[in-house]
Design brief:
By secondary structure, the protein is α/β, with parallel strands linked by helices. The protein is built from 14 helices and six strands. The chain folds into two domains: 239 residues, P-loop containing nucleotide triphosphate hydrolases (Rossmann fold, 3-Layer(aba) Sandwich), CATH 3.40.50.300; 62 residues, Histone, subunit A. The protein has a six-stranded parallel beta sheet with strand order 3-2-4-1-5-6, sandwiched between helices. The two termini are 14 Å apart. 34% of the residues are buried.
Length: 317
C-alpha cells in the first residue's frame, strides 16, 4: 500500500457466492485485469491433497495465479475462523505492502463475517459433553437433536438444517456448558474487529435456482468421473483419518467415505452428494442475503464477467 494512502482508503474486494456460482473463474478473470492477489475464503481448500472434491484450482492455475490460504494444513488437522482471521489479515497486509489489492474469494461466509465483525467469546470444547451429545444422536438421530436445540435456542435452530450435525452438536454443547444459547453469546459477547479498509462486497446469487442446481449436479458428476473416490482412498492410505474429522465432513468426501465402506451404492453416492451440495448452496445463499453491504449480481447472467469488471474498475480507480 503506498505510503500516501491511509488504511481507510485502501481497497479490499470480496467475491462471495454459493458453490458452483463461478467464483473461481471470475476471480481469475479479475486477476487478468487488475493488480489483485487472491485470498481463498474456503474452509475446504485449506486441506492438502483434497483437490477433486473441493473443486480446487489445478496446479497450473495456482502457479499462474497464486492463492493464499490454499493447501495450508493436512487433512488430519483442523482450521478455525479465528485462524482464518489471523492468516487473512497477514495476507492482506502483505499484499497491500506490495502495492496490490487483496481479492478475497470463496463461499465460507462464517469466515467473512468473523473477519469483518469479529469473533464471539465461546466456551471451549468439552470432550465429555460432546461424546454425550453424539451418543444421544446415535440413538435418536440428528433431526431429533435439532428439535431439542429448537427448545433451548430457537434462533440457532431456525438457521440450521436438521442434518447439520456439526453445528447442531456445537450449539447444544455450548448451551449445556454455559446454560446460555449460542445465539445469545454471539450477540452479547461479540468482540468487534478492526477492519479499517474500504471494501467492495460482490455477491453472486442465481436468479434461477434450478439452473444452479443443474450446475451442481454436473459438477458433482465431473468430480466422480475425475476420481473423487480414488482420491479419498489415497488419502485414507496416507493419513490416519476418521469420518468425524472436519476434513472428512466436507461435502463429497463424507458421501465417498460411506461408499468406500460399503454403506451406500454408487447411485446413492451421486444422489446424496448432489443433495448435500444443494443444501450447502442454500446455506451459503442464506448467509449472503443476510450480510450487510453486499452488491449482488446474478451469477447466471451472460455478461457477468463484464459487469463485475466494470464495477471493480469504478471501485479501484
Amino acid at each position: 500500500m503506498p505510503a500516501s494512502r491511509s488504511a481507510s482508503d485502501a481497497p479490499v474486494i470480496f467475491l462471495l457466492g454459493p458453490t458452483a456460482s463461478g467464483k473461481t473463474a471470475l476471480a481469475l478473470h479479475l486477476a487478468n485485469h487488475f493488480p489483485v492477489d487472491i485470498i481463498s475464503v474456503d474452509s475446504a481448500l485449506v486441506y492438502r491433497g483434497m483437490n477433486i472434491g473441493t473443486a480446487k484450482p489445478d496446479a497450473e492455475a495456482l502457479t499462474r495465479y497464486p492463492h493464499r490460504l490454499v493447501n495450508v494444513i493436512e487433512p488430519t488437522e483442523s482450521y478455525s475462523a479465528a485462524r482464518f482471521c489471523k492468516d487473512a489479515r497477514a495476507a492482506i497486509d502483505e499484499i497491500m505492502s506490495a502495492g496490490r489489492i487483496p481479492l478475497l474469494a470463496g463461499g465460507t461466509m462464517l469466515y467473512v463475517k468473523a473477519l469483518l465483525e469479529g469473533l464471539s467469546t465461546m466456551p471451549p470444547a468439552d470432550a465429555g459433553v460432546r461424546a454425550e451429545i453424539e451418543a444421544e444422536a446415535e440413538a435418536a438421530g440428528w433431526p431429533a437433536m435439532h428439535r431439542r436445540l429448537a427448545q433451548v435456542d430457537a434462533v440457532t435452530a431456525r438457521r440450521l438444517e436438521p442434518g447439520d450435525s456439526q453445528r447442531i452438536q456445537r450449539a447444544l454443547e455450548v448451551f449445556r456448558i454455559s446454560g446460555t444459547p449460542i445465539s445469545t453469546l454471539q450477540v452479547r459477547d461479540r468482540r468487534m474487529t478492526d477492519f479499517p479498509f474500504r471494501t467492495l462486497r460482490i455477491g453472486l446469487l442465481p436468479h434461477d435456482r434450478a439452473v444452479l442446481h443443474q450446475r451442481i449436479a454436473a459438477r458433482f458428476d465431473a468430480m466422480i468421473e475425475q476420481g473423487l473416490v480414488d482420491e479419498l482412498r489415497g488419502l485414507r492410505k496416507r493419513y490416519a483419518l476418521h469420518p468425524d474429522m472436519p476434513s472428512m465432513r466436507c461435502v463429497g468426501y463424507r458421501q465417498a467415505w460411506q461408499f468406500i465402506d460399503g454403506e451406500i451404492d454408487a447411485k446413492t453416492l451421486r444422489e446424496s452428494g448432489i443433495a448435500a451440495t444443494r443444501q450447502l448452496a442454500k446455506r451459503q445463499m442464506t448467509w449472503l442475503r443476510s450480510m450487510e453491504g453486499m452488491e449482488n449480481f446474478d451469477c447466471l447472467r451472460v455478461d457477468l464477467a463484464e459487469a463485475v469488471t466494470s464495477r471493480v474498475k469504478s471501485f479501484v480507480t
